[in-house]
Amino acid sequence: MKRAGFTTVWLPVALLLPQLMIIAIFFYWPAGWALQSSFYLQDPFGFGSTFVGVENYTDLANNGEYMRIAWFTVVYSALVTFFSLSIALLLAVKADNVIRGAKSYRTLLMWVYAIAPPVAGFLGILFFDQRNGPLTVFFQTFGWDFKLGVNYNSTATAMVMVAVWKQIPVNFIFFLSGLQSIPRAVREAAMIDNRSATGRFWQVTFPLLAPTAFFLLIINITYALFDTFGILDTLMKGEPGNNPMTLVYKVYLDGFRGNDLGGSSAQSVILMVLVLLLTVFQFRLIERRIHYT
Amino acid sequence: MTQTSPRRRIRWSTVSDHTILTLGAILMMAPPLLAFITASHDAVTIHRQGIQLGFGDQLGTNFQKAMFEKGGFTQTVDGTLMLINSLILGVGFALGKIIISMMAAYAIVYFRLRFATLAFWMIFTTLLLPLEVRILPSYEAIQRLGLANTYTGLIVPLIASATGTFFFRQFFMSVPEELAEAARIDGAGPVKFFIDILVPLSRTMIAAIFIIMFVFGWNQYLWPTLITTDESFFTLVRGIKQIVLSYTDAQIPEHGQALALAIIAMLPPVLIVVFFQNWFVKGLTESDK
């Protein structure tokens, strides 16, 4: 709050009201409802529900399929985060180096940000087409019988590749702006101290980029968990079958196709706790980031 | 010797820099570009041979069909209608979010309110849980309010997150305090100060956040998938899977038309991001999402 604040009372209340009403109706009510119904077993026909305590949660823990999906989600998020961060970092370092054409490279490397995940997934379908997709053909020349939507590992590979491709621009933009905010004096001092470009990068540039990288780490994990829904859904063409999927996809599947309200709510609550932990972690890092700069 | 060797090394590293950047650019550019080129061929060619490397002569036809021919399951929706719906969602979401969050941020930063801290925390808790983790209960809420298949149901729940408020709060905090004091001494009330001083001062910020939010709204998929079952409310991004599936299930799949539709779905946000990239980058890096 500003020191010289206005003292009117009705105006700020009126200004806050729309935001507060929206979050009350579309945030607190649904979130509370999810928490509540995760402790109930819903009647399949929608008549009433019985309190079952933590049974929905223990069911999930004992459900082999759910645990397998959870494991896939972990591997998938790790791969997407690792590859999109490292490719973007490489490109950002190079784009920061060059003098000629820097602006054009920036434009070319970042515009994919604007493509919607399901549209990216649709492009993936073209490239991983079973008969004549260029990447399918490419994998087959190496003796890998690549089959999108049929073979578990093939589909998982396609999902990771499309998700990485779609996420490179965001990481690139943040890394580049992080690099550009490193003061000239620091760079020049490093130039004098260390003649090897690689050495300079790991000893000077990378530590200075660490806050950006930590921040992006959280952003990327959140992206892999939630924002790739559209990519997954298009790549498996809406037919989950034996295809790999993430936890968010499973919430959608159980809640909307399986009509398992209690189970789906319990899954939602698990995800909420997960995001909560991630965010708390992120806020602590952001605070540290402010001290850095 | 000692003179030439570093010079040559620098030149080589420049070459490798440009090579890596060019490869990166190709990696990012090729998929959408090839999709565009392939969209200029007729259905049979695409069906038999897949992605094409040279332009065909069906570009106009495919785009015209995608825009004006009705497709989908009930044959009630064409590209134009979906484009309009996408625009309504993108612009409606961006504007709604900016207006509501600017108002809230103004109230939090500039007024002495007893429950300001409470309101602050109530709003900022929403940063913690993205819509995706509470889709089912949010869907139930919309159903009970009778807002399924309405623009309100499509847009308003997406606004229920504090990203915008957080962004404007930070910006307002950085505005010099003397400004409000000076305005008060000059006899300007809080409303006048907001509209005549703070809003014009935030112009760049508003533009930056508008671009981010427009792209975010335009690209929504999961929420529109749940909330709009009536095809006349389909956005391009929401409709794309359905349409693509119905096109590809046919005897000779209408790949050309499906591709044209995908291109139309990516074009507006891409153009905005490319043309206003300075604002876009500013909005992205300063809002910290």
Provide a quick synopsis of the model:
Chain A has 293 residues and is mostly helical. Helices cover 74% and strands 2% of the residues of chain A. Chain A has 12 helices and 2 strands; from the N terminus they run H-E-E-H-H-H-H-H-H-H-H-H-H-H.
Polypeptide structure, described:
The complex is a heterodimer of chains A (293) and B (289). In chain A, 74% of the residues lie in helices and 2% in strands. Chain A is an all-alpha fold and 293 residues long. A two-stranded antiparallel ribbon of chain A has the order 1-2. The model of chain A has no long low-confidence stretch (mean pLDDT 85). Chain B is globular and about 75 Å long. Chain B is mainly alpha-helical and 289 residues long. Chain B has helices at 4-38, 43-49, 59-68, 79-110, 116-124, 135-144, 151-159, 163-174, 177-185, 190-201, 203-218, 222-227, 236-248, 255-275, 277-287. The mean pLDDT of chain B is 84.
Key descriptive features of the protein:
heterodimer, A: 293 residues, mainly alpha, two-stranded antiparallel ribbon, 12 helices, 2 strands, 2% strand, B: 289 residues, 15 helices
Largest protein-protein interface: A-B, 96 and 97 residues
Strand content of chain A: under 5%
**Rg of chain A:** 24 Å
Shape estimate of chain B? globular
Q: Beta-strand level of the residues of chain B, as a percent range?
A: under 5%
Helicity of chain B, in percent? over 70%
**What percentage of residues of chain A falls in helices of 4 or more residues?**
over 70%
Task: Please state the average pLDDT score of chain B.
Answer: 84
Overall geometric form of chain A: globular
Structural class of chain A: mainly alpha
Instruction: Quote the distance from N terminus to C terminus of chain B.
Output: 51 Å
Oligomer: heterodimer
Instruction: Note poorly predicted spans of chain B.
Output: none
Count of DSSP H/I helices of chain A: 12
Q: What's the SSE pattern of chain A?
A: HEEHHHHHHHHHHH
Number of DSSP E strands of chain B: 0
Main beta-sheet strand count, sense and barrel state of chain B? none
Provide the structure class of chain B.
mainly alpha
